[in-house]
Amino acid sequence: MKELHQSDSGPASQECHDEANTPGRRQAGAHVLKAGLRTAVVLCLAATLIHVVLVFLHVAPANTVSKRYSPAINAWVYPYFEQNWRLFAPDPDSVNRQILVRTAHTRSDGSVKVSTWFDLTAVDNSAVEHNVFPSHTAQNLLRRAWTSYTETHGGDDKARTERAVMIQKYVSNIAADRVAAHNGGTFDFIQLRVVTQPIPAPGSHPPKPTENRLLPWWKVTAHGK
To answer: CB 24: neighbour CB atoms within 10 A?
Structure first.
């Protein structure tokens, strides 16, 4: 009877002991969860602060800090957070640009077929005109792509940096895809021509073009095959 009594009291005592530890375990789990939440909040706030500071330095006028940390700032901002305005000094376009493209295809006999010029800007203008809610693509994609190209290539059309190569590929892809969508046909090369004209004053005659820039032929992914 004594052994039976001990065996009965043993499990009962152990059960009471486990019940006594349950609140402590719950408190420990709650502490761990709270600590994890605090860490996540702190990391989010730190990332947000870093992002705001880097974007601010990118759009602010050039200063000692932005010049010293320019590589880090550019690595963070480009290409997803790029800004096309300057803090306290907006710089709207003061010229109109007409961007045209033509294509070339090498036939099986070795001859080259060159197309007529296709006006990409006219297509965008047509999509924007009389449209209450024009798309961002029609308004800005081609224009911003060309602005980025001139910023990275200068006037000689030579890509000297990885970003310049990327922008050149970006511009050529836009032109090739638009030609394929509107005109179809088969082509392996494209060439861009950009005509720049100052915006005329109200009531004045259209000014003469200030630049008629012809870019080199670019090899593109074959279309129409």
So the answer is: 9
